[in-house]
Design brief:
- By secondary structure, the protein is of the alpha+beta class.
- It folds into two domains: 8-127; 132-171, no CATH class.
- It has four helices and six strands, in the order αααββββββα.
- A six-stranded antiparallel sheet has the order 1-6-2-3-4-5.
């Protein structure tokens, strides 16, 4: 399986440039606590929250970190007229109401929900300077994967990031 299951918080950590031993300490709780701790090791800064305040939708941009309950994701798109935002997320065998969620993909979350507080943070080290269509990124991954394995499908466990590095400039 090329795109192995990934914990949501470690995926966010990797996406925001956290490396080495610092990545080992990343979990949803540590990301959430970075909202109130400006001296956190990750370099995350608070943007807006619904915890005791009204979330300011105008402050949120692509590349920001979404945290709600025990889940975290990267915001990839703008906020629609209903307060819903598009995210890129990973989960590791998480039970949902209808089934389990395993792997990564796109999702949509309601920023105006009242059930659990939402925290939006920004990675100071690695904010998104530009965006790309997910289909373009997947084409680069497929192309580099096929080149690396001579167009012979293999069952490889790993991080798809190893197949992106050389193709990023193509986007």
């Amino acid at each position: 399986m090329l795109f192995a299951s990934e914990d949501c918080s470690s995926a966010v950590g990797k996406a925001t440039g956290i490396l080495g031993d610092d990545l080992l300490g990343v979990y949803t709780g540590s990301i959430k606590s970075a909202y109130t701790n400006s001296e956190n090791v990750y370099g995350y800064k608070p943007v807006t929250s619904s915890d005791g305040e009204k979330i300011n939708l105008e402050k949120i941009t692509a590349g920001d970190i979404y945290v709600r309950g025990n889940h975290t994701a990267i915001i990839t798109g703008g906020i629609d007229n209903y307060g819903k935002v598009q995210v890129f997320e990973f989960n590791r065998d998480i039970d949902l109401e209808k089934n389990k969620f395993l792997g990564g993909g796109m999702g949509k979350y309601d920023l105006l929900q009242k059930e659990k507080p939402i925290y939006i943070l920004r990675a100071e080290k690695n904010d998104l300077k530009e965006s790309a269509e997910l289909s373009d990124v997947l084409k680069i991954i497929d192309s580099n994967y096929n080149e690396a394995f001579n167009h012979k499908p293999l069952d490889v466990v790993g991080d798809c990031g190893v197949f992106i590095a050389e193709g990023v400039e193509e986007i």
